[in-house]
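Researcher: I've been going back and forth with a colleague about how N-(5'-phosphoribosyl)anthranilate isomerase might be arranged in three dimensions. Neither of us has a model we trust, so I'd like an independent prediction. The organism is Deinococcus deserti, in case that matters for your notes. Sequence below.
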Amino acid sequence: MKVKVCGTTSVRDAVLSAEAGADALGFIFAPVSRRLVTAQVAREAGLSVGPAVARVGVFLNQGLDEVLRLSEAARVSAVQIHGPVSSLYLEHLAAYYPVLRVLRPADLAAAQDVWRGPGQVTLMLDAPEPGGGQPLDWAGLRPEFPVGAWLAGGLGPQNVAQAVQVLRPAGVDAVSRLEVQPGVKDPEAVRAFVRAAKQAIGQSYPQ
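Model: Here is an independent structure prediction for N-(5'-phosphoribosyl)anthranilate isomerase. You can compare it with whatever you and your colleague have in mind.
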C-alpha cells in the first residue's frame, strides 16, 4: 500500500514527508485551491526528495494542454484528475503519465466505465468536497469499493488505520488533517499519518 501526502507547497514539507516514509507527494495546480503551487516550486520540491518518491500533479477541471504543460514544467511523475473528463481525455493523458482518476462515492456505480483503454489509470475515491476533511462511510462503501483503488477524504493520523483495515485500499491520500494551516504541514501529524497507515498492514517505515 502506498501513502501520499498531498498539498505540498515547499521544499521543507517535501523533505519532511519523504523522511517520514511517504511514497508520494501531491502538488496542487488547481487555481481554486488554497494550496495552489507553481510549477517551479513543485519542481524544486520534487527534485529535493529524489526519484524514489512519486511526484503527483493534482488538477481540477483543467484542459489537457494545460495539464501536460504544467506537468512537464513541474517534472511530475503522475497526475491526479478531479472533475468531469471524457474517456478520450484520459486516453490522451495516460499516454504520457500514470493517472489517478478521482471519483466520488456517487460515481462508483459507473466506475467500471471510467477507463477501458491502454495506459495506467487507477481509481481514487474521495469526498464530494476534496480537501474538506470530511471522512467517508468506509463500512458502507466496502461492498462496492473497487479492488486496487486508492482512498482519500478526511483521512488523518487518528482514522487512517481503521479506513485501511475496512477497505484495504492500494493507497491512501491526506491533506487537511496534516496541516497547521492550508499549505503548511504539521510535522508530527505527517509522521503519525504515515506510521499509522503502514502499521495497519504491517509495513515498515522510518523510525
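Researcher: What would you highlight for our discussion?
Model: I'd start with this: The first strand starts at residue 2 and ends at 5. After that, consider the following. The longest helix spans residues 187-199.
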